[in-house]
């Protein structure tokens, strides 16, 4: 729906139902009215008022609203018990329906009713970001987040997402968001952005949702290269020599950024990489290698905690290899980026010292970076292995890990 | 996603996971595999195989599959009871989550996993059409339909729908579907279609969903007129005089058709009318009246059942007025089209005999038709009235109803 | 410019300059005013009035207007002589400019001024169609046509044309024109059209001009086949088996139609074929052969004139081979379609009897058809040959021609 | 034509005609070949080679090429004389055509043939920029410029231009050009640009040509205000208060920039203003006043030349009023910006001292600026007046001019 249509729709609703401006009911009362609305017209109007009202609330009022959602819009255990007893006695469709109704927290229906308003999806995503912040200090709100994320997961499923290239012909309003959302290698300026988007050996792709057409959900920056690079500086350098794209044999995913805190936990990265590999392969049949150049965000903290102080680059690479292949959180790697790529079926291909001289690179990993390799033929096997606790790494990385000097208490 | 991208995506998946052609597992086994899949890549591949497999099934095999969904993918009442007891004892977020999981039939998650495949939404809509047919002879399938329609209602909520004008510049492939889906006044030929779309005093609008961009969900045909018409023939006549659109004061909704049997029960009509009124008002500020010229599909059957045999046009109008304003199904009008428009807040404005000479018009209502009037200022009040059992009709229609000669047993 | 913008522009001009409705000046006076206009605003207004006025003229008034253009808007030979004398005496830039002005008929500037109005280009194309008709009975108008076609050739040069595929997703309003403009194998119905556009082994492409975005200039219909076909019926049959497009090795151009009589003599066909070959090659690298299945429109008339009465299919093929390779108009082939394809560098590849059973096929060529083959590597050589009077044909066609029994007076 | 299609077209041509890389003929020889080409295929190939070759030439070689165009591609006065004699003796269409051919310099046809190559139009525009530079030192080239500008004027006529809004959703690649081409009030940064494009009370519009879709020809920046502003600083200030667009009653054209030096002398500004007034009026019916806030680029130089040294702001305004209303170049105002706006029918509305504190504002006009007012109802009358030597100015501006103290020699 275009903005114009949205405007008209608003105008029309106001004609139908009267201005919301003088409506003094609080947001909880409006929500209750929305749940009770029997016709679409008044329901839509009330949904719009709820969303307008929410926008005007301060943090405390929002927390109070979330508390109300957690408490008043919760299931009634007694009713569930009654419905369950009826269903167990005679599992008719009617009894089944009654049980379904009783066991679904009413706030789920509230969120669905709010989502009917054009443009509401983006607001619900923002609401979840608020909710997650509030839930950090009030654990009881976790149940509200469970319901809202359940719905968002359903609404943002892969079948609804659209992959679009982002390039120097993209709208400036979108590019401004790319600058803002870039989370791995900060974009300093529009010139820096242009260097990442305009050259023929650079690409960027993002997922979008039709109900939030101006908001990227996640994006990946890609460099086309010959061979696998080991230093981020060479990729981003202002004065680098352009590679004619026909000569490229490697696509390097050097930055992946999630854009919407309100969609935390709803993973798009794996599907994004897979789709981008497919699109690039179709465009450039000469590409043979799909690989990342990734940060190791947890390395420095772990080194400190483990009392490991690598004396030189060689020792740092060994320690990083140990950290990535042997340090776990449950059965999975301890490092979050490793968890993501290995969980997609990639292989740890190589580790580089002195690869990211930026302040954040030094702070996170003392400048070390890692290549995760995506090999279509090995992905299924790697995933099977991971399910059985094996981390996929090349022999040379495994060898590095074996050479690492780790204090016994940690090894 | 474009067809090309879809194709590539398929190609790529095949490279990843191997061809599905030789896969001899039955659809139930594939579904179980999909539910167990722990990574996105193999999950997507299995979802695609399930959908491919489903397409190849005959009616009996589909019925068997639905039966399996109803039986094996049902909640386990015992597990619900256990989870409910835990939650009642100590309503922690974890206990809440466990109860939510136990009380949601696993087939809901199955449908969501299937929907991740690009293009799957349309197939799920078709699956529901099959399911509804099958449920007519096997009531046990109703619970599957309840779950699938629950999800479709969430995915097809108003916020995701897009209104688009349909006109003579629309793609022929879309217009072919309009011809096919028109359910009220059959479109005989492309020339007939052109007469309804091309003239400056004719309009057509349809709702679309981004995941099914080539499939209209519902559409309405509109004639711009001076005054409220009482005969459908005048609107559709080949040789009628065109009205300069600046002279139009009335928009007549003379045909509304739902296109997707798989979305039955998920109502778009009210929102469609509302949005079209808003868009037309913005374009043509001279429009004052928004009205339908509607069939009365249940009239003839009711006349027969009630033993009413109107002697002339006047008596037919009286009987129709009685039928529309007094004959009920519960608190609502007995006539399905009346139920729809009155349920949107419209008023019964006038009744016409000899209005639809077509075979279906004669069969359904002995040629009678009705105008439902949409007045923004009265809609809220009409809806309130309807909630209290009052049917909105003009004085003249009420007067007609009072004059009707109905055998006592019926009146 | 969209229609809306066009409308606004009109509205605005009317505000500026006053309504044209009451303007009683004749079209010649308006044209003189336009030539004298010193500012853009009044010039644009007058140009629009001229075009409006022209539309309202009947055939006689148009002929009178063309006569005025030929007479009054002609060069003044005396002024040319003076300017030429000045220039010859002292060829300064000023003298050059004066000569240029004197030797260009003022109607050229008039046409350019008319063309400034948005939408005018299409009207000038129509005006030229009128003009060509009028010139058939009034040879003096030829000079006007020379000037107008000079300008149109400049405005419709290849650099401004846009190639667009025409398919079943194209606007119905465009497809309606395709039905209307098809000049070779009549399209009977929308179903017939769909059979030519929708299947994966059928294509259609058209050239458009940005100033006439809704009007195709020329289009070609293409069938993808295995091997070179010899009968049009097999290509158009309703019940033919679809060819998976990956199996196609041949693209058959079986119908090329010019759409705009007002652009007669401004050739787009060669460029169209060339561009379509390029686009198809890029999409379907498996295509090896680009060939036509073409009518022989002049064959039957020539047979009659030459007193040749082929006794059987073999004799008809021989006679056709003779006609195509030996009968000339100047140095070029006598047959207009042969002239076109040989003039593009194609080779006469094969001749088929009993190939077009339609009434027009029988009338034009007694059912015979011909394949012209486009071989990129031979085109330059064929064109050189043609410049020297040699017609490119395969050995088998040359052999057929030698066997033809042609009465001596003709051979 | 898309870049992809352009690429394919190139690839295909190379297949047809062989690589141009080894072609050692000089550009003049290639041009002669192009003029002699009898078929489209080889003509297109040669045209492409000419354009490629031209791009590789240095300034001296280009000057030599222009000299060749001026000399060798000139009309032959003897042939014109012969053709004129024939035509004067017997003005047949053939004699007319021969005269037309003889009196058109062959380079015009050369430029038309070059323009057939997709993308050539932009290169010809650049060629004219080079040509105009070269003509400054070699007056003989003026005749080439006359021919090239004659053709460009025909190709860039208003009917082919497209007006597009430029805003913060426009492609970054386009906005980068806006930054570069802004000629009146320099755009410092992307933030500065955003302040001019994104707010609801700011607009920008540009004309484009379909054959150069990524290149603006001219653009205007507009501020929506209440009342007529007198200082540019207030319009561009970073911290200004946004005006709700419904409250705006005035549209201020505060910057108009031509983008293509190769289109110098082909005026788009008047039509741009007219179209923008029409579009804004349609969108915002509350707009009553259309006005500029313009520089007075010739003021400071004239003050110096005239020996006028205004003592204060009041004296500066008086001197500026005198300069704008009384100092002429021929019958028109001496100031180039005044010439443009008065030539469009505008009125000098007011003059402001201390209005543009920028360095260029001080240098050009000692900080003074002027409002030109566009009143639809007065434009025709103002233009008539201008034709008779009267400059349209308000009474207050006329009064200012009368008060100016100008040394007698100048007054």
**What is the number of beta strands of chain A?**
9
Shape of chain A: globular
Averaging pLDDT over every residue of chain A, what do you get?
Answer: 90
Number of helices of chain A: 19
What is the quaternary state of this protein? homotetramer
| Topology of chain A as a string of helices (H) and strands (E) | HHHHHHHHHEHHEEHEHEHHEEHEHEHH
User: Can you say what the CATH homologous superfamily of the largest domain in chain A is?
Assistant: Malonyl-CoA decarboxylase, oligemerization domain
Keyword list:
Butyryl-CoA Dehydrogenase, subunit A, domain 3, Malonyl_CoA_deC_C (chains A, B, C, D), 12% strand, 411 residues, homotetramer, malonyl-CoA decarboxylase activity (chains A, B, C, D), Aminopeptidase, globular, Malonyl_CoA_deC (chains A, B, C, D), 3 domains, 9 strands, Malonyl-CoA decarboxylase (MCD) (chains A, B, C, D), alpha+beta, 19 helices, two-stranded antiparallel sheet, seven-stranded mixed sheet, MCD_N_sf (chains A, B, C, D)
Sequence-ordered SSE layout with sheet pairings:
The structure is a homotetramer of 411-residue chains.
Chain A: H1 3-17, H2 27-36, H3 40-56, H4 59-71, H5 77-89, H6 93-103, H7 106-114, H8 120-137, H9 142-155, E1 162-165, H10 172-181, H11 190-197, E2 202-208, E3 218-225, H12 232-236, E4 250-258, H13 269-283, E5 289-292, H14 299-306, H15 313-326, E6 328-329, E7 332-333, H16 336-343, E8 347-352, H17 359-365, E9 369-374, H18 376-387, H19 395-403
